[in-house]
Q: What sequence folds into this?
């Protein structure tokens, strides 16, 4: 599943993150999350109902911030299945995500390319927007030819590890929300909601 979630960060969030990143120590175009910037990202994810519905998160690793200036790129890579969190415990990476911190007018090139079973997809989003993809999907970033591309990337352990099952639950959840908005909590809506939660009980691993 490849999902675009717009406006995860507000303009105020972006300004605060950029201020924090100006104090970051960059090594090879990457920086560990400055505490304030990481908290802003994590708070934004926590209030995103769409991210929760898509990822069904148990917990996420702190974001890794990336800075790509002219000539830099990210080669084809895959997210490791097991990642160690700051507290030393292992996290199973089921869902990957890239949060764009620079707008498309701030740089040329620097397109995120994600490979899934339907081929390669190019992504270049507005600052504050998030792209969510299966952690098993290899991805790369094309060379930046002008300007600076800032982003935050992170991995999430999901209650539902299987990509297909998680995508089915997400589609069912969106259908329920649309139906509820149109007809309210009628018999059909309640029946589908019950079906959703029964599937979640069957597939969830916490």
A:
């Amino acid at each position: 599943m490849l999902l675009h979630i717009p406006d995860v960060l507000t303009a105020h969030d972006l300004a605060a993150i950029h201020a924090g990143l100006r104090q970051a120590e960059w090594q090879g175009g990457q920086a560990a999350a400055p505490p304030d910037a990481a908290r802003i990202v994590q708070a934004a994810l926590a209030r995103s109902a769409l991210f929760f519905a898509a990822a069904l998160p148990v917990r996420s690793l702190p974001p890794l911030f990336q800075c790509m200036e002219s000539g830099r790129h990210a080669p084809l890579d895959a997210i490791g299945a097991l990642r160690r969190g700051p507290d030393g415990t292992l996290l199973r990476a089921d869902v990957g995500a890239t949060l764009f911190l620079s707008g498309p007018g701030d740089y040329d090139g620097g397109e995120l390319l994600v490979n899934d079973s339907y081929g390669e997809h190019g992504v270049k989003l507005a600052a504050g927007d998030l792209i969510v993809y299966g952690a098993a999907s290899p991805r790369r970033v094309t060379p930046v030819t002008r300007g600076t591309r800032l982003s935050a990337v992170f991995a999430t352990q999901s209650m539902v590890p299987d990509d297909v099952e998680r995508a089915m639950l997400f589609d069912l959840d969106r259908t329920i929300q649309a139906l509820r908005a149109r007809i309210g909590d009628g018999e059909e809506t309640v029946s589908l909601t019950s079906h959703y939660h029964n599937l979640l009980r069957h597939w969830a691993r916490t």
User: Anything to note?
Assistant: The chain is about 35% helix and 35% strand. The chain has two domains: 3-158, 163-203. Residues 163-203 form one domain. The CA atoms of residues 1 and 167 lie 6 Å apart.
